[in-house]
């Protein structure tokens, strides 16, 4: 195709990934411009702390094979990944087993001649009905089409097919059935977004409670402020009881109000009660109430974030100081903090504070996910997000096990599990694959997953580290774009030489091909460089790859 293709700069106003780093793929499934270093060591960002090695561990030291084509870190079934693997297929092995007990042990063989009673086969649960799509063909007529399910999954269509959405009809209402590239890439039609940037920096009024008992509960804080206090809704998690993630010691508590005026009223009401001789107490301890700010809350919630100044909930980074390296910014959280958070719930008897207040680590994680500045994608790396996700997954798993055993029904309740689940599923920093893993682990229904903005076949989004569905976009529009990407990358593969095509096909058998060879077009690297890639860099590479593929698949004006 002749002519200069419109790059991502025409959409986002930023230079392309290849022009910034000189490592992006050139052409179709092209090799990176930089030379792959020999003997890349094991990733230190995750491997030394979480016991997870770099994606390159299962593909060789340099992250390249044969003809030098890089491929996505999640494209192999062996080894460990920086990003979580999908738990598909979803079929439960328990559904194929009978309910009869095993036969009794017969040492003398007296019962050998007796025939066992026939066991009725287990009833298989029907596959839930999925949405049927209408796919526009290259002709003027449209044919009924179901989105291709990922490999290894069964798709059974029941009932009449659903008529395609109005948005898809408008998009494909052309003589050829294909929209122009400019139309497909327009903001109204393009169904993908950079999910972490959907987080909003909102500055609510804040009240700080000092000198609280370490076993203070969230309900006690809300009752202390009174029913007339206009705090945020429960879904927004307005109460933040600060906990040291290393020692699990309870510090102060912060409460967010709907406005600064309401926070000031709550403080004035408390001071007025003190003048009347009614001292506010939590338990048997008098509590100090003072007006605070979002900057103070963020500073106490992320104490290891150096080299920045909090302007409300927005971080303002200081210039790099080569003389005092420990004062430079390294991250909002450390991977050691997340590891210790897991240890507090796995072995609470070794943590005296967690033993007496077992719900505190879970509430600390809820506050961390809610207040984490996901919108600062230039300062969050793949490994740091992975550490937060691993902690979330493990805490949800341990909490579900303890609730099932009835370990502490007074503190570890289903309500606490629901709060943590809602916070994790609504977290803008997690990928669709991460949320799908959590939904599968917690048996979240399909309808609830749609409420959280999950796409169809979310477990097939293995190579999307920043790409996510746009909220409110019809599911058939999203699947139409994925189908266009999949079919175009398969056509591009046929134009490759036989050796290169065979190499990519072998790698494709090791991963999910619902997105086609999108992973080869993106061409992520391996090793510590991949672990230290920021979410903004991952988004730049993925959106550039989508635009390059669509520019070859769709006609241009």
UniProtKB/TrEMBL annotation:
Q: Which named protein is this?
A: RRM domain-containing protein
Region entry Disordered, spans = 1-40, 58-109
Query: One GO molecular-function annotation for this sequence?
Result: nucleic acid binding
Where do Polar residues bias regions lie?
16-25, 73-83
Record-linked CDD domains = RRM_hnRNPH_ESRPs_RBM12_like (cd12254)
Q: Extract the Gene3D superfamilies matched here.
A: 3.30.70.330
- Transmembrane portions of the chain: none
């Amino acid at each position: 195709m002749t002519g200069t293709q419109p790059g991502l700069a025409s959409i986002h106003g930023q230079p392309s990934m290849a022009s910034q780093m000189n490592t992006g793929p050139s052409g179709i499934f092209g090799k990176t411009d930089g030379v792959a270093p020999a003997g890349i060591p094991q990733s230190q960002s995750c491997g030394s702390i979480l016991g997870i090695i770099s994606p390159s561990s299962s593909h060789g030291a340099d992250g390249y094979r044969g003809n030098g084509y890089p491929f996505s870190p999640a494209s192999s079934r062996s080894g460990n990944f920086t990003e979580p693997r999908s738990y598909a297929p979803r079929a439960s092995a328990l559904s194929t087993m009978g309910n009869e007990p095993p036969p009794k042990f017969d040492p003398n063989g007296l019962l050998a001649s007796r025939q066992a009673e026939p066991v009725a086969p287990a009833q298989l649960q029907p596959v839930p009905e999925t949405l049927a799509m209408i796919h526009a063909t290259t002709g003027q007529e449209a044919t009924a089409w179901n989105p291709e399910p990922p490999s290894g999954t069964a798709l059974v269509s029941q009932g009449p097919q659903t008529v395609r959405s109005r948005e898809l009809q408008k998009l494909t209402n052309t003589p050829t059935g294909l929209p122009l590239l400019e139309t497909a890439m327009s903001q109204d039609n393009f169904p993908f977004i950079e999910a972490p940037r959907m987080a909003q920096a909102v500055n609510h009024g804040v009240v700080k409670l000092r000198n609280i008992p370490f076993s203070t509960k969230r309900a006690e804080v809300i009752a202390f402020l009174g029913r007339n206090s206009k705090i945020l809704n429960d879904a927004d998690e307005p109460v933040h009881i600060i906990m040291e993630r290393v020692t699990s010691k309870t510090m102060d508590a912060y409460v967010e109000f709907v406005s600064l005026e309401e926070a000031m009223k709550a403080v004035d009401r408390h001071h007025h009660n003190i003048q009347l001789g009614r001292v506010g107490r939590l338990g048997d301890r008098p509590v100090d109430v003072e007006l605070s700010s979002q900057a103070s809350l963020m500073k106490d919630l992320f104490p290891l974030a150096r080299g920045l100044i909090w302007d409300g909930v927005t971080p303002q980074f200081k210039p790099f100081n080569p003389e005092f390296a420990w004062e430079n910014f390294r991250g909002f959280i450390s991977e050691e903090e997340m590891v210790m958070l897991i240890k507090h719930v796995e072995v609470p008897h070794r943590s005296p504070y967690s033993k007496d207040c077992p719900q505190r680590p879970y509430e600390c994680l809820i506050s961390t996910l809610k207040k984490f500045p996901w919108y600062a994608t230039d300062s969050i790396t793949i490994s740091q997000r992975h550490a937060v996700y691993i902690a979330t997954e493990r805490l949800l798993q341990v909490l579900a096990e303890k609730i099932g055993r009835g370990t502490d029904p007074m503190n570890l309740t289903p309500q606490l599990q629901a709060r943590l689940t809602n916070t994790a599923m609504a977290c803008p920093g997690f990928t669709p694959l991460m949320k799908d893993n959590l939904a599968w682990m917690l048996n979240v229904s399909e309808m609830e997953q749609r409420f959280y903005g999950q796409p169809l076949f979310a477990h097939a989004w293995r190579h999307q580290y920043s790409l996510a569905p746009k909220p409110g976009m019809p599911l058939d529009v999203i699947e139409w774009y994925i189908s266009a990407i999949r079919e175009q990358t398969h056509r591009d593969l046929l134009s490759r030489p036989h050796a290169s095509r065979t190499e990519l096909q072998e790698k494709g058998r090791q991963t999910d091909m619902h997105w086609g060879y999108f992973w080869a077009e993106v061409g992520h690297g391996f090793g510590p460089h991949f672990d230290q890639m920021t979410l903004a860099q991952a988004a730049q590479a993925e959106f550039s790859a989508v635009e390059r593929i669509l520019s070859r698949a769709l006609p241009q004006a």
